[in-house]
Write a structure and sequence with these properties.
This protein has 4 helices and 12 strands. It folds into 2 domains: 87 residues; 157 residues, Rod shape-determining protein MreC, domain 2 (Thrombin, subunit H). The protein is 40% helix and 23% strand. It has a 6-stranded antiparallel beta barrel with strand order 1-2-5-4-3-12. A 6-stranded antiparallel beta barrel has the order 6-7-8-11-10-9. The C terminus is likely disordered. The protein is an alpha+beta fold.
Length: 316
């Protein structure tokens, strides 16, 4: 038995048992204090952690708001740049088209302008442009696009002008069939205006106009330059009142939706009345008169006329 107590293994075992018992006793009596300490430490760490987390969250939220604001401003700037780009592109294309018109008609003086308002009370699609007398525009100036005739300036002030279109019956434009040379007058009608159509009236009953023919301005009267395209012949019809024949013209420009135009303020034949047709008519009448006079037989003197004495005054 004594040998057992003397062994080193027994001694280690005994020390271990004693140590465990001591620790158990200490823990039994000191647990409330240790638990409170642990709780205090844990609560403190939790509070610090919560404050740090809240600060981090607030910082992250503010940063996100600021980043979102910057992105929104950047998107708005990019959208504005895109809009400006498309506006510039459209303006560039428009100016190139107008340049082509100027190149084809070097004697014309143009004022480019933009439609800024449409008259809702006008059934014939009149509109207002952003150019007026300060730029040289005056009453009755022709208004065109790259596709053809649109109308005429009916009112103007320093900064704007009102345009009546060829869809209106108030507009009268001398026109000619580019193929047959038949002449007539362009004038609008409430019957056709909503379909972007106008009419060629006052045409001869013996005209040779056909569907698809191109109609241009004649230049007679000096109000419009000659050879401005109006449109093409769509069909024939008859007036309801006097049964006169006219042609329905489809303009190459959709006048109801036009957004930019050119105002012709000057051209080489402005104000000059074309006398070609009237001179031709006068020559025909003159030739007929001369022919009639030349063909009239001359009266031969008779014996009565030759032997008849001249009247001699008598005196009582």
């Amino acid at each position: 038995m004594k040998k057992l107590f003397r062994r080193k293994s027994f001694k280690y075992f005994a020390v271990t048992i004693v140590a465990v018992c001591v620790i158990a006793i200490v823990c039994f009596f000191c647990y409330p204090f240790l638990s409170s300490g642990v709780n205090i430490l844990t609560n403190g760490l939790s509070q610090v952690s919560a404050e740090v987390s809240e600060n981090l969250n607030r910082s992250s939220y503010d940063e996100l708001l600021e980043e979102n604001k910057k992105l929104s401003e950047e998107n708005a700037r990019l959208r504005e740049q895109a809009a400006d780009y498309y506006d510039l592109q459209e303006e560039n294309e428009r100016l190139w088209k107008f340049y082509d018109i100027k190149k084809e008609n070097p004697t014309y003086t143009y004022i480019p302008s933009t439609v800024i308002r449409r008259d809702s009370n006008d059934d014939f699609y009149s509109f207002t442009i952003d150019a007026g007398t300060s730029l040289g525009i005056s009453l009755n100036d022709p208004v065109i696009t790259e596709n053809g005739l649109v109308g005429i300036v009916s009112e103007c002030d320093a900064s704007s002008s009102k345009v009546k279109t060829i869809l209106s019956p108030e507009i009268k434009v001398g026109a000619v069939d580019s193929k047959t040379k038949d002449i007539g007058v362009i004038s609008g009608s409430s019957r056709y205006c909503d379909d972007n159509l106008t009419m060629l009236t006052k045409i001869s009953s013996e005209n040779k106009i056909a569907e698809g023919d191109i109609i241009k301005t004649s230049g007679v009267g000096g109000l419009f330059p000659a050879d401005i395209i109006v449109g093409q012949v769509k069909e024939f019809s008859y007036d309801d009142y006097d049964a006169s024949k006219f042609t329905v013209i489809e303009p190459y420009e959709d006048i109801r939706k036009v957004s930019s135009v050119l105002v012709i303020t000057d051209f080489s034949t402005k104000g000059q009345v074309s006398l070609e047709k009237s001179d031709h008519a006068f020559d025909i009448k003159k030739n007929k008169k001369e022919t009639a006079v030349s063909e009239k037989p001359t009266e031969k003197p008779t014996a009565e006329t030759t032997d008849k004495p001249t009247d001699v005054p008598t005196y009582e």
